[in-house]
Amino acid sequence: MKGNEALAEAAIRSGCRHFFGYPITPQTEVAAYMAKRMPKIGGTYLQAESEIAAINMVYGAASAGVRAMTSSSSPGISLKSEGISYIAGADLPCLIINVQRGGPGLGGIQPSQADYWQATRATGHGDFHVLVFAPSTIQEMVDLVGMAFEKADAYRMPAMILADGMLGQMMEPVSFPEEAAEVKTVAKPWATNGHEGKRAHNIVNSLYLKPDQLEKTIIDRFQRYETIKATEARAEEYLVEDAEIVLVAYGATARIVKSAVNTAREMGIRAGMIRPITLWPYPVKNIQKAAETAKHFLCVEMSMGQMVDDVRLAVNGKRPVDFFGHTGGVIPAPGEVLEKIKAIAGGAK
Amino acid sequence: MALQNILLAGFGGQGILFAGKVAAYAGLMDGKEVSWLPSYGPEMRGGTANCSVCISDEPIGSPLVLAPGALLAMNIQSYDKFIDAVIPGGVAVIDSTLVDKKCSRTDITCVYVPATALANEKDLAGLANIILLGTLLKHTGFAAEAAVEKALSKCVPPKKQHLLEPNMRAIRLGMDY
């Protein structure tokens, strides 16, 4: 199954019945799949007039307490950023998919990871975070969509799947959770879904004109973020235990890096890899632990070096952190990564 | 089985992506790990199209095939671009109706099949891709023959089942060539 289609099917199986989107390469198959499936299962598929309209429809649907989502690619996510900020400010759960392409501007349509800063630092204006999940296989796309909806509901905040054009376009075998499997949902007593005279009416809002009141809502939200940082960070460690050189990569790039690590091992170089699965919260502890034993870090991305900031923050000057990457839609080759590993290994001797 | 990295390349419309899909599905039928990665974008509208297929016992690392063990080339541009990338000991299956060049490399096996002409002659127009896939199957054994047949039944959509038989014939034609 194609990555984009797998994302859509996984969302449906996670109980999502409200999709609002606008086409853009390389994620259009998400919307196309939803357009085909949603009407058959009593869901809503709506192609909005723009990305901005789509995210605001998500805002509305999420306010009513239903699982709602949108998907786009880099330039479209920038357009959605205002809406994402409002959704975060109103403490609403939703899912946003970004199948990244080259930027800035219209950029290109080939795979990229240049929206890392945007996803983890500034998805919109104001003090807030969104949960960011980074799958590296089609199967993981399926698994993380379910988790993203669950965590978004649990913490009342937007979640993002940060994929890229390679993952969106490629096909791999996947298995889905049983259709009958129960969708884990939480009660949403805050939802504006009609009080029927049985309770006081709910208000969903992100406007607080009194500074002290606004500050309090933000501080409360950041206390939740602390819990999330302590409990929700996820990463895969691959041959890290005895590694002298630890590579850090996420998403499609991690697959390329894994190939390079395997070849390096065959050559007798003790390389390993940490693959962050959540980008926010960042798996700081995995990096910190590795920094105790590893001699050198190498971060590989399809960007000019964005996640490397988080690696450096976690390593905190203990070990050298190098970066290697391509950007603009150029995909790093395992051979190039291997050359970097060899250069570091040679220098370490 | 060792990792089988296949690169299929030609013009948009020749069925490059479809042939790749059949190869990937065949691997899946054999119980292997597989991946299929297309080039996407304006290529679909008549430019060059290519796709990477990986078949392996191990989970697939990079799905992008830069150094193919097997190349299927259906136009000159793709032949020129990728023939030197084929790994030593690899196989290149070339549609000689469309590529009038001969490879000078001695470290790879080049098989020239006038697939487009053959397809037209045998009432299989549009199935040069599958003929070449049959030849590729014979020379690389990327999957069991039965698996390829099963894959074809999967990949030919239900509404176009009448095309299954010609596809099967095309595979056999390619294998016997």
What is the percentage of strand-forming residues of chain A? 15-25%
Terminal Cα separation of chain B, in Å? 25 Å
Measured by DSSP, the beta-strand proportion of chain B falls in 15-25%
The CATH topology of chain B comes to Pyruvate-ferredoxin Oxidoreductase, domain 3
Number of helices of chain B: 6
Task: Give the CATH H-level superfamily of chain B.
Answer: Pyruvate-ferredoxin oxidoreductase, PFOR, domain III
Contiguous uncertain segments of 5+ residues of chain B: none
Question: What oligomerization state is this entry in?
Answer: heterodimer
Name the CATH architecture of the largest domain in chain A. 3-Layer(aba) Sandwich
Largest sheet of chain B: 6 strands, mixed
Calculate Rg of chain B over CA atoms: 15 Å
Based on helices, strands and strand pairing, what is the structural class of chain B? Answer: alpha/beta
Q: pLDDT average of chain B, as an integer?
A: 93
Shape of chain B: globular
- List unreliable stretches of 5+ residues of chain A: none
Summarize this structure as a short list of keywords or feature phrases:
heterodimer; A: 349 residues; alpha/beta; Rossmann fold; 2 domains; 7-stranded mixed beta sheet; 5-stranded mixed beta sheet; 12 helices; 42% helix; globular; B: 177 residues; Pyruvate-ferredoxin Oxidoreductase, domain 3; 6-stranded mixed beta sheet; 6 helices
